[in-house]
Amino acid sequence: MSFDIHIIGGGLAGSEAAWQLAEAGLRVRLSEMRGGGDNTPAHETDRLAEMVCSNSFRSDDAENNAVGLLHQEMRELDSMIMCAGHEHRVPAGSALAVDREAFASEVTRAIEQHPNITIVRERVDALPDHPTIIATGPLTGSALADAIAAETGEGALAFFDALAPIVHRDSIDMDKAWMAARWDKGGKDYINCPLDKEQYDTFVQALVGGEKMPFHDWEKDTPYFEGCMPIEVMAERGPETLRYGPMKGVGLDDPRTGRWPYACVQLRQDNKLGTLWNMVGFQTKLKHGEQVRIFRTIPGLENAEFARLGGIHRNSFINSPRLLDGELRLKSKPNIRFAGQITGCEGYVESAAIGLIAARFAAAELRGEMLEPPPSETALGALLRHITGGADAETFQPMNVNFGLMPPPPGRARKADRKKAYTDRARARFAEWMGKPAVAKQLEEAGAR
Length: 449
Ligand SMILES: Cc1cc2nc3c(=O)[nH]c(=O)nc-3n(C[C@H](O)[C@H](O)[C@H](O)COP(=O)(O)OP(=O)(O)OC[C@H]3O[C@@H](n4cnc5c(N)ncnc54)[C@H](O)[C@@H]3O)c2cc1C
Description:
Blueprint (H helix, E strand, L loop, with lengths): L4 E4 L3 H12 L4 E4 L24 E4 L6 H11 L3 H8 L1 E2 L4 E4 L1 H14 L3 E4 L11 E3 L7 H11 L4 E7 L2 E3 L9 E3 L9 E6 L1 H13 L21 H6 L26 E7 L6 E4 L8 H8 L10 E3 L2 E8 L1 H4 L5 E2 L2 E6 L9 H19 L12 H12 L24 H19 L3 H12 L1
Parallel strand pairs: 1-2, 1-7, 2-6, 7-17
Antiparallel strand pairs: 3-5, 4-5, 8-15, 9-13, 9-14, 10-11, 11-12, 12-13, 16-17
Helix pairs in contact: 1-10, 2-10, 3-4, 12-13
Bound molecules: flavin-adenine dinucleotide.
């Protein structure tokens, strides 16, 4: 069969993208290397949309949770991943967890049976010249990864992430922290959290004693590049190591004491909105619970809310803010779009969501139309904007959807009502974008009450 568009990778993103394009009446060739003699180190079957680790799509609460809101938006866009997830859900409180085998079988069957989709069990090693969506995920085949790296230039494709925690700006106690740059060079660009000797010593001991996440067998050769060594590994090298590394206090005059602190944690702005700040040099393999416990001992971060916790994993992803346009096209080769985790979103749901919107953009383009991107106040729009330009390209690392990616709602809602203020507004903006102004108006009026 000849085809209108080629999708490479039949994971969460590629399956959703194939479905959306086929439902739009376009003929799709879906190339998936599993089942054709190749595999990734994490997949165990040749089913499409295999969930390689947990069986959860996380919170399904669309009122108070950003990923729950993303679920809702995807359902409104007829997401087949959300539909199959719902069909095969298992009890998990307010989360959407699924029977992974039944789920992947259902997705595979639906895609196989769609008259507009041809699945080809093949590995693709080069960048095609026809309309294509690359959705090869965090474990992209190495020859294709080399081809992407050759097209995009040195350093634009990463093979490991090195995640430092990211903190919501409004949860930092600025009575203890202050804004300044080291030696007062440039603007007051960093948030600085000072530690005295006792606080520092206790902190270093907690890092050394903290429980760490194990590496998968196939991740054991993870290279610790200079500059992205886990902080606990630095702490293990000696009590002073961090004080001469990412926790240096020199050149930072604390306005409360007029002196340099014994040690200092710096946070740097992570998105254009200024709502998210990353802890500079704090990539870590500590367990998530341990990170929250230990990092909240840092003065100023006692009540920190984390938009992302630290980690180091094998993960192929491109520098999307630099390489992609607002419709997920590769600027240097616009017949190619990227979708899924390889764009630097993180998670099953986010990957499928970016597959969905990449497909909708591609379908519009193939029909000679233009699709307005979803507004940045919506979960899908916020995630899309983050990876295609809202994030800082210099420090870009994979990210889950979260409220910090959206512009803060106007006015000062009580803390308990803040999440609802985000989701009420998102629903109204989403309805408007879907061409339902009457629904949008109703939602806005209900939100204002
Ligand atoms: C070990 C591990 C654990 C994870 N655990 C979770 C978790 O618990 N929860 C969560 O939300 N997210 C998790 N993720 C992150 C991420 O959400 C998933 O990897 C998700 O499956 C990404 O979706 P995707 O469609 O982008 O990629 P994938 O689902 O990985 O799909 C990519 C597909 O492309 C195929 N492919 C690769 N290269 C080629 C090629 N050259 N030619 C043809 N086909 C190719 C692969 O075989 C694969 O089927 C995990 C990631 C990893 C690596």
